[in-house]
């Protein structure tokens, strides 16, 4: 929709990324342009003008720019993952396609929506969090003073719609370590309808004799559970631990009741643990 | 930027999205459905790839090549740049051939999406496109290249799958919907301040800052408008609805109700001026639960309203309308005694949540003044099902003679009952009268959810008893409807809701208790089925439960108890009126569905169904009167035009119901010509004779019958009578022949909508239920309809597909979540309208009947398919699991909860 703002600047250099009063960053824009602009925002700075390379992979791992579109993510890193179950240096990326498909957006919107935008929204159902947290990724954040800092993707989202980014900070890229790229990963989700908003999502990665499971969508902020291979009892205890946090442990919105989400999360987590069993 | 091959140089505004930029450049093939990236109506090809243009920042597209539906045939993938401008792309041709649209508002975006995603599976290709009319079956057919339509021989169009006359224009985005005509010079825009409180009185409203804000031409508060009471609901008789509403009211009764109106040169200026309004409110106690609202001590929403003056039954109890009736046949002692003595009796309560129409075109209107013979005429072009009723009430509210108001509906982008209301027209009309300028108001999708009427939520308690043989001994219902803050459609929906639903069953003892109650919720209104679906859901559940108790097959149970020709129609009392058995096909519908379900085994043969799945089947039936009661009037004129074609002027509106096609078919058949020689001009109060409107499924059987009479008389005149002789023609005394100004001749006929017949629908499902997740898979869906003689088999099937799909949404996922009067689900990503992937294919079967009242034996069939779907689904789930869902929608999480509660 039309946004009631007065200026749009297309950022070309890092200096352009310094926000002026009233300005906010524009990523792909598929969320920003879907709702009236927040009060006080009078201008946008379009990060897609930075011309960042969408993604690259080398010996140190995978880098995905904040402005990498979801379509680019699927067609690039997603295709490196290869078909499910096939070993290879990038088999950890086998869940990329499912993670993008888990979003309610269509292929049309995936063409414009960005990885950074999805992460920075901090929505419980924002599947990029579950993807990159499962891949042990860190986010590189440009700070307004010209420096940068790193934050683990699993720590980036701190609550429903809140992220560990301060005003003027830019989510420059996420970095997946090389080791994670070659490890087995798993994906599960539940929704009220086949293409509906994800109500519970579990991503996981096999790490030696352990499995890291990341719970998103059913919880306000991601939970990372490290449990032994095939240790379903330990998994149950960890999930009980989440429930012990109180009424707000399970996220509530119109896309599924908290009790159902809790049950689906448990079910999916056991399935993912099962899938990641056997030999590493 | 290039738009459909043409260069444009205009600079986009900061923050402007591509969709409004394109429309500003005249590319009105690009529609606004949701403005939030959820519906896909605005899809265009951006440098060859489909995008939802409402989400694309226009500044990024200044160097892009944009193709809209209007340019798809020439500039789309595989297009022919040298072809004529109206050349259709193969995808567009496929949509025409398959009849892959109804209202067509989604179609321009749909064809761009499909053309840009060749090879994708339908479920994925259309993940981002919503269609509210078709139920997607015909769209699947279009994608598969199936041809569902045909060209009829001259005079043979009746009964054939003729293409809609507007098809080529619809699929290429050229058919002008309400706001698609070029903006008149000086057009002003409306923004409205909505109430932040569910119940409050305005104690102060300061408008000075808003009035002097840039671009503002007018600010209206309750001090500035006529205080005339009216109802937003429109009916043939305006006394059907309570007079409880004002254009702007100092008392606010729901969150979002209009507080004040700003009219400015741009929508943004209007919005920004709204923010400058200063309002003080005295908040009042609010009530949101209809049961609480009718208890002593509850806040009273409309104190002082009376039955005699305002048609509010008991204002002090918030009761708008009530029905309390009991009937016992001779020798019977009433419901309570019968239930006590019955071999089996069930009592249960069923509920449904609020449902939104989600017509893809939001409410919107544009008004202007143009000179007429007796002074300026106020023109209002609006998205309405009832242009004449809007005209009449506007004239009353604004104190204008009717001939000084002209209301026109272009092609309407979906209605489903939601446009049988006066919701935006009063504001634009008043603003035009005050400013002298053209004024437009287009509701946002959020306003569609938060401020305009939705379907009535109801709580229905059923008590039913039967003897050992399964014959009903008693049937009683207690209905509580939440009409929200205003009583628009409250009486009609309540009376209709309990009417055919009760009348379809024979029982010697019957009782109806029903009340519709004011609450501080968003108003409820007319919705497809008009109350029947809610009540039928409960009754069909109770009948099913009774059959299960007695060990009787559910189809057999219904056969034993449904009315048959000759039986009286009994609701809570025998009905004394004009309802007749013009035909009867309920027995056939039951047989058809039973046989179809029997053709498939009940075992979980489908792959992937392990022991966690339970399989079951269920059916439900519904009856509907073919025409609304108490008069539905139409006046049709068929003329021989100067060019030798025939013109049908008829007041009813085309909103995807297919009446334009039907009227062309009827006229062409009577006149013995191809349908291409018939032009239908609907829904203009200045050119057409009066028509009550396109509701109550009346377009085919009321307006259609008048068109038939007029066309038949014109044909007789042309073939048997010399040119200037306009004497009545023997056998055609029901039509008048008149010479036209152009030297031609026309015939006019009317119909008063009486007597009325009955139509029937039966739906059957076979389902698999996953107990661990609450997932329900549809293994089979079958629908039988008794529509009399079928006028257009493809359109009729489309109406049924669409009704079933809309009902499937209400039954499984659609739910307006309202907390303390605040609608939480205000976008389409949070209110889940079915996508293509969600809708099972339904086998559609027709009963073989000929109605003696409808045109050439036809009956109406557009609301009715909605009604039996939800109960059939609930009955199938009950059969599968032993647990009966009684609350709609049956979402996965709710069903899981229900199954879990029963197991523990």
Automatic annotation (TrEMBL), chain A:
Q: Which residues form the signal peptide?
A: none
Q: Pfam families of this UniProt entry? A: FAD_binding_5
Q: What one GO molecular function would you report for this record?
A: FAD binding
Q: Which InterPro entries match?
A: Diverse_Substr_Oxidored (IPR051312), FAD-bd_PCMH (IPR016166), FAD-bd_PCMH-like_sf (IPR036318), FAD-bd_PCMH_sub2 (IPR016169), Mopterin_DH_FAD-bd (IPR002346)
Task: Show where the FAD-binding PCMH-type domain sits.
Answer: 1-181
Q: Which Gene3D superfamilies match?
A: 3.30.465.10
The name on file for this protein is Oxidoreductase (Molybdopterin dehydrogenase?)
UniProtKB/TrEMBL annotation, chain B:
**Which keywords label this protein?**
Iron, Metal-binding, Oxidoreductase
Does Oxidoreductase count among this protein's keywords? yes
Molecular function (GO) terms for this protein are: 2 iron, 2 sulfur cluster binding; iron ion binding; oxidoreductase activity
Give the source's domain of life in one word. Answer: Bacteria
**The 2Fe-2S ferredoxin-type domain covers which part of the protein?**
1-72
**Record-linked PROSITE patterns:** 2FE2S_FER_1 (PS00197), 2FE2S_FER_2 (PS51085)
Q: Does the keyword Transmembrane helix apply?
A: no
- Give the matching Pfam families: Ald_Xan_dh_C (PF01315), Fer2 (PF00111), Fer2_2 (PF01799), MoCoBD_1 (PF02738), MoCoBD_2 (PF20256)
| Matches recorded under Gene3D superfamilies | 3.10.20.30, [2Fe-2S]-binding domain, Aldehyde oxidase/xanthine dehydrogenase, a/b hammerhead, Aldehyde oxidase/xanthine dehydrogenase, molybdopterin binding domain
Q: Which family does it belong to?
A: Belongs to the xanthine dehydrogenase family.
State the protein's name: Oxidoreductase
Record the organism. Answer: Promicromonospora soli
């Amino acid at each position: 929709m039309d946004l009631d703002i007065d200026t749009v600047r297309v950022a070309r250099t890092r200096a352009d990324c310094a926000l002026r009063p009233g300005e906010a960053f524009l990523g792909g824009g598929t969320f920003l342009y879907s709702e009236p602009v927040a009060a006080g925002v009078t201008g946008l700075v379009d990060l897609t003008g930075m011309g960042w390379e969408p993604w690259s992979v080398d010996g140190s791992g995978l880098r995905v720019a904040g402005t990498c579109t979801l379509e680019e993510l699927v067609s690039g890193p997603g295709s490196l993952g290869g078909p499910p179950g096939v070993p290879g240096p990038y088999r950890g990326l086998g869940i990329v396609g499912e993670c993008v498909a888990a979003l309610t957006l269509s292929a049309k919107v995936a063409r414009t929506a960005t990885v950074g935008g999805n992460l920075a929204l901090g929505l419980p159902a924002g599947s990029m969090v579950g993807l990159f947290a499962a891949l042990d990724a860190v986010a590189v954040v440009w700070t307004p003073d010209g420096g940068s800092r790193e934050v683990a993707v699993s720590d980036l989202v701190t609550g429903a719609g809140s992220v560990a980014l301060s005003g003027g900070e830019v989510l420059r890229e996420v970095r997946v370590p090389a080791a994670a790229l070659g490890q087995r990963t798993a994906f599960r989700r539940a929704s009220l309808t086949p293409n509906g908003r994800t109500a519970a999502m579990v991503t996981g990665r096999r790490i030696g004799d352990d499995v890291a499971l990341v719970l998103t969508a059913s919880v306000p902020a991601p939970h990372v559970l490290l449990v032994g291979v095939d240790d379903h009892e330990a998994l149950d205890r960890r999930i009980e631990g989440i429930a012990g946090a109180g009424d707000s442990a399970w996220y509530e919105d119109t896309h599924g009741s908290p009790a159902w989400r809790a049950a689906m999360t448990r079910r999916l987590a056991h399935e993912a643990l099962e899938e990641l069993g056997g030999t590493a | 930027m290039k738009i459909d091959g043409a260069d444009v140089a205009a600079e986009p505004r900061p923050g402007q999205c591509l969709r409004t930029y394109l429309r500003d450049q005249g590319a009105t093939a690009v529609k606004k459905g949701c403005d939030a990236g959820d519906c896909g109506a605005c899809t265009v090809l951006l440098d060859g790839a489909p995008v939802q243009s409402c989400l694309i920042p226009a500044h990024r597209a200044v160097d892009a090549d944009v193709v809209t539906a209007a340019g798809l045939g020439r500039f789309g993938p595989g297009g022919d740049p040298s072809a004529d401008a109206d050349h259709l792309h193969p995808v567009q041709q496929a949509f025409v051939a398959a009849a892959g649209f109804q209202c067509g508002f989604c179609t321009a975006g749909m064809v761009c999406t499909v053309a840009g995603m060749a090879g994708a599976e339908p479920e994925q290709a259309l993940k981002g496109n919503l269609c509210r009319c078709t139920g997607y079956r015909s769209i699947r057919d279009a994608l598969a290249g199936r041809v569902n339509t045909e060209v009829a021989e001259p005079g043979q169009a009746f009964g054939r799958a003729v293409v809609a006359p507007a098809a080529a224009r619809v699929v290429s985005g050229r058919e002008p919907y309400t706001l698609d005509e070029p903006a008149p010079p000086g057009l002003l825009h409306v923004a409205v301040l909505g109430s932040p409180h569910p119940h409050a009185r305005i104690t102060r409203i300061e408008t000075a800052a808003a009035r002097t804000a840039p671009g503002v031409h007018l600010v209206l508060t309750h001090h500035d408008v006529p205080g005339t009471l009216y109802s937003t609901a429109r009916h043939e008789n305006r006394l059907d609805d309570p007079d409880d509403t004002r254009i702007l009211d100092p008392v606010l009764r729901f969150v979002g109700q209009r507080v004040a109106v700003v009219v400015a040169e741009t929508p943004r200026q209007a919005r920004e001026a709204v923010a400058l309004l200063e309002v003080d409110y005295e908040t009042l106690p609010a009530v949101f639960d209809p049961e609480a609202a009718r208890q002593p001590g509850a806040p009273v929403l409309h104190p002082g309203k009376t039955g005699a003056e305002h048609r509010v039954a008991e204002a002090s109890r918030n009761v708008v309308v009530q029905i309390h009736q009991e009937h016992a046949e001779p020798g019977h002692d009433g419901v309570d005694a019968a239930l006590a003595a019955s071999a089996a009796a069930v009592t249960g309560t069923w509920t449904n949540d609020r449902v939104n129409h989600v017509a893809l075109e939001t409410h919107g209107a544009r008004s202007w003044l143009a000179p007429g013979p007796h002074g300026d005429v106020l023109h209002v072009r609006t998205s309405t099902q009832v242009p004449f009723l809007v005209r009449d009430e506007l004239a009353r509210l604004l104190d204008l003679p009717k001939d000084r108001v002209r209301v026109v509906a272009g092609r309407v982008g979906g209605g489903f009952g939601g446009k049988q209301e006066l919701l935006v027209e009063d504001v634009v009309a008043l603003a035009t009268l005050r400013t002298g300028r053209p004024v437009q108001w287009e509701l946002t999708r959020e306003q569609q959810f938060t401020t305009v009427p939705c379907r009535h939520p109801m709580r229905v308690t059923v008590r039913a008893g039967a003897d050992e043989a399964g014959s009903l001994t008693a049937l009683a219902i207690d209905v509580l409807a939440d009409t929200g803050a205003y009583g628009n459609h409250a009486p009609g929906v309540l009376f209709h809701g309990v009417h055919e639903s009760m009348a379809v069953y024979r029982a010697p003892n019957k009782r109806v208790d029903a009340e519709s109650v004011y609450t501080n919720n968003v108003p409820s209104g007319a919705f497809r089925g008009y109350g029947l679906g809610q009540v039928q859901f409960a009754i069909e559940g109770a009948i099913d439960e009774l059959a299960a108790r007695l060990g009787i097959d559910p189809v057999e149970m219904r056969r034993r108890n449904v009315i048959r020709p000759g039986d009286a129609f009994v609701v809570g009392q025998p009905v004394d009126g004009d309802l007749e058995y013009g035909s009867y096909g309920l027995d056939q519908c039951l047989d058809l569905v039973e046989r179809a379900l029997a053709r498939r085994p009940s075992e979980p043969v489908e792959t992937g169904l392990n022991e966690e799945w339970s399989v079951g089947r269920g059916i439900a039936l519904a009856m509907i009167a073919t025409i609304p009661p108490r008069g539905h009037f139409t006046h049709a004129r068929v003329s021989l035009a100067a060019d030798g074609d025939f013109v049908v002027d008829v007041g009813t509106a085309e909103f995807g119901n297919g009446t334009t096609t039907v009227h062309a078919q009827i006229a062409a058949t009577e006149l013995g010509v191809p349908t291409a020689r018939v032009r239908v001009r609907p829904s203009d109060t200045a050119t057409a004779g009066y028509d009550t409107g396109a509701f109550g499924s009346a377009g085919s059987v009321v307006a259609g019958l008048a068109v038939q009479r007029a066309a038949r008389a014109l044909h007789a005149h042309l073939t048997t009578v010399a040119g200037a002789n306009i004497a009545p023609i023997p056998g055609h005394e029901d039509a008048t022949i008149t010479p036209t100004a152009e030297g031609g001749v026309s015939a006019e006929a009317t119909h008063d909508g009486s007597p009325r017949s009955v139509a029937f629908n039966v739906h059957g499902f076979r389902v698999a239920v996953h107990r661990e997740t609450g997932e329900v898979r549809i293994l089979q869906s079958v629908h039988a309809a008794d529509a009399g003689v079928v006028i257009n088999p493809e359109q009729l099937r489309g109406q049924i597909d669409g009704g079933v799909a809309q009902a499937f949404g209400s039954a499984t996922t659609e739910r307006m979540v309202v907390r303390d009067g605040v609608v939480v689900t205000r976008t389409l990503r949070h209110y889940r309208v079915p996508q293509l992937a969600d809708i099972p294919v339904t086998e559609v079967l027709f009963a073989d009947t000929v109605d003696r009242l409808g045109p050439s034996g036809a009956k109406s069939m557009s609301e009715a398919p909605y009604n039996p779907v939800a109960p059939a689904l609930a009955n199938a789930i009950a059969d599968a699991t032993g647990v009966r869902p009684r609350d709609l929608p049956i979402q996965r999480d709710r069903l899981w909860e229900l199954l879990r509660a029963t197991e523990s």
